[in-house]
Each structure stands twice: as structure tokens, then as C-alpha cells.
Amino acid sequence: MKPLRHLIILASILSASVSIALDKPAADTTTTAPKSAETPMPGVDTARQIRSMPACKATVEEHHSCYSIFRKADGNRFSIGSPAASHEVVKFLETLKTGQTYQFPDVFYKYQQKK
Q1: Domain membership of residue 106 as a residue range
Q2: How many Cα atoms sit within 13 Å of 29 on the Cβ side?
Q3: Which of 3, 43, 61, 95 has the fewest CB atoms found within 10 Å of its own CB?
């Protein structure tokens, strides 16, 4: 009889745990991440993509080893380069100065003419 009594106690404990878990509200799965984290920043990696960019003025905000971040007059940001960028694109980015505003894609055409 004792094993049956222990089994009933164990079953009661388990059922109580399950019912408590079922009574709890579900975890909040909504995200509060900013919209910019949801949408990747537009970017270009190749010389062909730079040449086909729509004309715009943009200021260099950040330089990194293989890419740079730019901000257009309308406040939108974009990047040029990546770890997969060609040597030509990386060398072009090295000629640009942080804080300086450039006209794209004209500045790239001028860079290519100087090479």
C-alpha cells in the first residue's frame, strides 16, 4: 500500500506543477528592437554597383578596414564595401575622408580616371 501512496503523492505534485505552468501567461514575444535593426542598411560591394548608384550627395560617417558608412542629405545611411569587396573598392574608400561630403557616383568615376 505504501508504494501506491507514494505514487499518488508524486502524481499530485506533477499535476500541480503542470496546472501552475498552464496558469502563467505566455512570455511576451514581441520585440522592441528599433526599426533600423529590422531592416539592413543598403549597401554596395562592387565597382559596377557603385557606378550604377542613383546620384546623391553623402557624407562619410565611419571608415572600417573594408567598408565605409555614409549618410545622405535626407538622413538615410548606406554602406560601400564589405569583407567581399574588391581591392579596387577598398582602395577607393581609403581615398575618402571622414566628415567630407561627396557626390556619388561621380567621385568614383574620378577615382577610376586617376588610376
Answers
A1: 40-114
A2: 2
A3: 3
